[in-house]
Design brief:
Two copies of one chain form a homodimer. Chain A has helices spanning about 20-30, 55-65, 85-90, 105-110, 125-135, 140-155, 170-185, 190, 200-209, and strands at about 5-10, 30-35, 35-40, 55, 70-75, 80-85, 95-100, 115-120, 165. By secondary structure, chain A is an alpha/beta fold. Chain A has a domain at about 5-35 and about 95-209: Rossmann fold (3-Layer(aba) Sandwich). Chain A has a five-stranded parallel β-sheet, sandwiched between helices.
Chain lengths: ~210, ~210
């Protein structure tokens, strides 16, 4: 039986660079990206199971009732959720799972799966965060101000996370997150679940036989 | 003011390879090695402050009375101890300090400095541990058996540690320990002491000003 994988939650304020970091992590490490379920219609070119798991509202509500989402939210009439069954299946098969999610979502995931590794991505400075939000170009002056103020407020939630990583460069941030994964796999309080089942088990078997 | 350094305690049963790992760590990382204080006479070539801090028994006992050792022990009439004042001085100046110590010593250090990073070095297998103890060549059959049984028993103390690292190869073990140091510096519960004083402080200052 393989050792259980780690759930790595990459979160932080909008504009901190979560998406870029996740893409780079997926290239350099053997991680399984958690894909969201949604009730919205697939757009042109979107593939079920790659971009989203597309579901009817009825199926989505059934899954809510059976507590099958780590978290879910309604955005403009469509529902989006993190499918617990898909994530747990990957973790049980020994895969490390990466989940990119906003702060409200991450806090709900933590309630449901506290043994996850919760990483807060910080922009190098608030000026840089402002610059990144502006550079997206898709914001009006008003929505920009709202996003920026919300990012300010959200940084207070950092204390709920295990780690904070400053996204000064993607390379630095990814290196730190990879180090965090290596370290987490050496944590004694995870031994029973992971290392004990592989390397250390031989020692323990000899010890207690 | 520099951010406070980390105290990294490398411990584990005799024969697990603590010494080799520490030597390799000192070569690859900018760490300060904690040097023990002792009441024994310097041997030929030993340098005060490099091999040991050599002290008179009177001075050593004074330091015990003023609680200036993280831990100390008597071995064949000589005293050995980890000088708290030297370690704290290095940590306060921002240096990461490495301390190689047996399990009994590490548990005492933990009582005195629980914020240290306690790493348990495991041999790849108990056969390998036996082979390593035999290869030292300095053991009688009886003392070898005693050491081996004690190593067996000592592995039970692993639950008191933060991390366990299997010393399959020195390169692997050192890489894992370096990852642990990187990760520990990203821990949110250390932010106040370390990261907050450097990178994140700018964000926080802007946030709360």
């Amino acid at each position: 039986m393989p050792s259980k994988g780690l759930l790595i939650v990459i979160s932080g304020p909008s504009g901190a660079g979560k998406g870029t970091i996740c893409k780079a992590l997926l290239k350099s490490s053997d991680l399984w990206l958690s894909v969201s379920a949604t009730t919205r219609e697939p757009r042109c070119g979107e593939v079920d199971g790659t971009n989203y798991y597309f579901m009817s509202k009825d199926d989505f509500f059934d899954k809510i009732r059976t507590d099958d989402f780590f978290e879910y939210a309604e955005v403009y009439g469509n529902f989006y959720g993190t499918p617990k069954w898909k994530v747990l299946e990957a973790l049980e098969s020994g895969r490390d799972v990466i989940l990119e999610i906003d702060i409200q979502g991450a806090l709900k995931v933590k309630q449901n799966y506290p043994e996850g590794v919760f990483i807060f991505v910080l922009p190098p400075s608030m000026e840089e965060l402002r610059r990144r939000i502006i550079n997206r170009g898709s914001e009006t002056e008003e929505s920009l101000d709202r996003r920026f103020k919300s990012a300010y407020k959200e940084i207070n939630y950092i204390s709920k996370y295990n780690y904070a990583v400053v996204n000064d460069t993607v390379f630095n941030a990814v290196s730190k997150i990879e180090a965090i994964l290596t370290a987490e796999k050496c944590r004694v309080d995870r031994l029973k679940d992971s290392i004990l089942k592989t390397e250390e088990v031989r020692i323990y078997e000899q010890l207690y036989d």
